[in-house]
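Suppose you are handed a protein chain with no further information: no name, no annotation, nothing but its sequence. What can you learn? This example shows the usual starting point.
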Amino acid sequence: MEEHIVKIFSTRNEISGNTLIFANKTKADIILEAELSNMLGSAFINILSDEKNDKYFHGKISEDFLKIHLGDLNEKFYVYGPPPMTDAVLKQLANLGVGENSITLEL
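A reasonable first move is to predict its three-dimensional structure. Written in structure tokens, the prediction is:
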């Protein structure tokens, strides 16, 4: 498996201050949950679109969800996922005033 961005930041001691919003369909789809939770603690936020579970948020990433869970909108953003999701998140970030230069898109 390719090394993920959170592990790269952790190796560089740059994990502090980062938040991971991890969208999946079900709990079973969450990869590396224990490792990511250990690295990020409460900054590891999971949202499930197809399964309701008291431990995770339910639905899809929305502007309101981002406003609630993101700290400073002047920070850098790393967006990765299937094209429909990334397109939606990019539009939401733009609507919230995040500039293109603040976004890294992984295809």
